[in-house]
Specification:
single chain, 158 residues, Nuclear Transport Factor 2, Chain: A, 5 strands
Length: 158
């Protein structure tokens, strides 16, 4: 019986700890325009020609599932490798449609975007950026970024 009570008390203490942590979390006020501006920042860095500048938009523990690679990119070096190749095409992204959702310290920006390249070509893709507010850095960083070409576009190019 004492073992059962100990287990219940340990569980209750764990839940209380989680509740206290959640209650002490400070929400970061954000509007849809604030989250939309994060894409603008990322896109400007993409046009800089400096892969590391783009990678600085990503949290240390983040995942990139890029448009033009089958390889998931977890580390900063892997992301930098992807962008060093992608940026040789001199891409410029434009948002075609989006939906933004904002939580306490997280945000989601998902929709469709088009990349235009220096050679005149373009690719439309679906995207999802998830963001988290990092108070120690006083900025939003990308925690995951998924981008994939439109299925119809891929089918038409085969």
């Amino acid at each position: 019986m004492n073992h059962t009570i100990s287990m219940l008390l340990a569980g209750a203490a764990s839940l209380l700890s989680i509740s206290i942590q959640a209650a002490t979390e400070t929400c970061q006020p954000a509007r849809e325009d604030d989250i939309a501006a994060l894409f603008v920042r990322w896109n400007e860095d993409l046009q800089s020609g400096v892969p590391k500048q783009v990678v600085n938009n990503y949290a240390a523990n983040s995942l990139l599932l890029p448009t033009q690679s089958n390889t998931p990119r977890r580390s900063a070096a892997a992301k930098e490798d992807y962008f060093s190749h992608f940026m040789t095409k001199r891409p410029t992204g434009t948002i075609d449609s989006r939906m933004v959702q904002i939580g306490c310290t997280t945000a989601l920006d998902t929709g469709l975007y088009t990349f235009h390249f220096a050679d005149g070509s373009a690719v439309q893709a679906r995207y999802t950026f998830t963001y988290k507010w990092y108070p120690q850095e006083q900025r939003w960083l990308i925690t995951s970024h998924h981008s994939s070409t439109m299925p119809e576009e891929t089918a038409n190019t085969r």
